[in-house]
Amino acid sequence: MAQRFRKPGPLAGPFYACVAIGLTLATSWVPEVAAAEAPARSRVVIVRGTASVPAAEREFAARLPDRFERLLAEYDIPARTINDEDVGPVGLQRAKVAILPYNPNLPAKELEALRVFVSGGGRLIVFYSSDPGLAELMGMKLGKYLDSSIGREWHSFSFSGEAPAGMPKRIYQTSRVIRPVYPTPGRSSVIAYWEDESGQELDDPAWVRSEHGFWMTHILLDGDQCAKRTMLAALLGTVDPAIWKTVADKALVSAGDIGPLRSYEASVFGISEQAENAGREKQVSGWLAQAATLRGEMNAAYSEARYVDAASRAAALNETLSRAYGAAQLRMRDEFVGVWDHTGLGLYPGDWERTCSILADSGVTAVFPNVMTAGVAHFKSKVLPHSELVERYGDQLLLATHAASKYGLEVHAWKLCWRVDGAPPEVITSLQKDDRLQMTRTGEVLNWLCPSDPRNLQLELDAVRDAVERYGIDGIHLDYNRYRDSSTCYCQGCKARFMKDTGRRIRDWPQDAFSGRHKKAYSQWRCAQTRKLVEGVKQIARSSGRECRVSAAVFGGYPKCVPSVAQDWVEWLREGHVDFVCPMNYVSNIEKFSELVRMQVNLPGARGHVFPGLGVTADESRLTAAQTVEQVLVARELGAGGWLLFALNPVLHRETLPVLNLGLTSKPGQPDPGD
């Protein structure tokens, strides 16, 4: 059973005595932090790309301001969003900074309005623009568009000493395209360069600075949220130093909040108690001593109005307490610890040896590389077309299995079912011509294979059989074994096959099947189509002559996923078609996570066969290292058979896995990093 925190009581014993001294010193003075009051009109304006964006990209551009609003809101920095058409004296009234998330080609009127704004002392933060006039206004020169076809990608960027105060040293972001700008001598300078997957600095500027603001050569993607939030604060702080007090106020209020422990004092007491119960006082004491020192430095910096330093110490304090929290945990014997690799390339494309070494050292037991869809494979499949990644980096399934076997890792080949993402255009055209693609009830054709078409089922099974028989993998992991949503599939083939299989006659298609008198029967029939795939895959695994487990990534909200997407994964478990399921429980709220896991493990046939998926870097959740530890403890306590982390990337590698490896995934006899 996982250890649960009790309410802190009186301190006893030599270990608690040391903790008490540190706690007294660290809390001898705590500044009173007042909530920041938002001005009537925000000094930060975000410009939504509308008139500046091609029509095909406007839906994408419309969502980008939300990303910036969320990041700034976490620091209580008020911001308002306007459209391209609103840029002018009224729209920018009282603003000090205008953020352009993606505004590639500005109308002349908007460019002139920004010129007036800048001449009046306003500053711009520009992302991935293609506008040479805007580059000239910023004192920069626009370069040519670059993409990964030139033989490299951009995986992080590192700031120089010329970057603003409080800037993180490095930001992790994988960008497959950039539009460089270059500095104009005497007017601007590079403050960050892109780095490749190995961390080697490239010649491509990531950030350029001038007296008029800053320019990033790609959009700001999701991922590495904490560092990006701090980066935005540092950029804004150069224009409006008062922002740093707002940031420091927010940072001090949450300093010490770790996982379920909602204050510094609660964290120290709770971590100490858990460490003593686990016999890990030695592993924790050093981290708590560091935390006490950082707490004192943070308070001193705030009292002296050194707000950048105060915020920096607060971040370091939380990181140190997270490590103490991680070090207070124990590993469970033979626990399954998996990692989804969304790219299918590992951490370092072309170097699975390095990736597997890192994962094994981190206590991971299985890797799930995303190596095939229904339309393309990242290995030398005899059934599916090969992706360009095979030409560039080699056969990913072969390289992954060879490296994993050396380090004692399992490889579960992750397959995206039914979706033909990445397939050559001529293949998709042929599939559509042959009426093999899903169709919505309104007649829209999707790039998804229709599950009821026997040709499609055979294609999926042949692709799986090829991987199982030729690569010696430890498992097949089925993702997207479902329909897109409740509105699919209603093609003419489904109509004919449904009537043949059930003996029913449908007069009003698709209405009778979607919401009419055949709705229930049609829902059951759709579930039968997805069940055929897991049945067939299980038969292939059983006949392989070696242990090859079948698993599936599934929607966590059972039974809602049955009528909506025809994913009756409880039936798959009950009938033995899958060995385990991985519900994608991508939530940050621990109560909601607990509710989901409790429901899942208590479903018929589910006990011991549910390995919850934790959304460490998922769009829906974004977990800190401490939140990840907390979710693992809950999953253990509720009886989960293992757990998986989404997804393998630099943030998971550098921030989450090291904390887990202090306790939850540590190996017997492993040296303690805190020593």
Tell me what the structure shows.
This protein is of the alpha/beta class and 675 residues long. Helix content is 41%, strand content 17%. The protein contains 22 helices and 23 strands. The protein has a nine-stranded mixed sheet, with helices on both faces. The chain is globular and about 75 Å long. The relative contact order is 0.08.
Annotation field: number of helices: 22
* Helix percentage: 40-55%
Strand order of the largest sheet: 2-1-3-4-13-12-11-7-8
The radius of gyration is 27 Å
- Which overall shape is indicated by the principal axes computed on the Cα atoms? globular
Strand content: 15-25%
**From the helix content, strand content and strand pairing, which structural class follows?**
alpha/beta
State the main characteristics.
675 residues, alpha/beta, 23 strands
Describe this structure in a few short sentences:
The chain is of the alpha/beta class and 675 residues long.
